[in-house]
Fold this protein.
Amino acid sequence: MSKGTIALGADHAGIHYKDAVKAHLINAGYTVSDFGTDSVDSVDYPDFVHPAAESVTSGEANFGLLFCGSANGVAMTANKHQEVRAAIAWQKDIASLARLHNNANMLAIPCRFVAQELAIDLVDTFLDTEFEGGRHQRRVGKIACC
């Protein structure tokens, strides 16, 4: 039985991390929707991030994971979607707090700044952390502008 569905999106700088995380997630019992890229050739990350974000907002995926060099572009793109709360994390505490306090539903990993093993730990931390709710729910409810 699947633990849930995770949407993946990456650019050329994040493809190797995406593929490693994908294998890890499948091994852990998740269903994975991989929106690409599948090449190290230079690509435009929005082409892969928008479909992953749409998968999360539609409910097709429970969470989304994004991979690029700095994580900035993929996070900015994902956060254009009204119901997405994409957080950049490079430490486990940040990945945990993104879920715990901000109810993030997508995680962006800066692949040029973290080791692949840490990226997998960030994903596990993110997926294993529950939203705390309470006072944080009020704040999260104010994030969307429309």
Remarks:
- The first helix runs from residue 15 to 28.
- The longest strand covers residues 5-10.
- The CA atoms of residues 102 and 140 lie 6 Å apart.
- The mean pLDDT is 94.
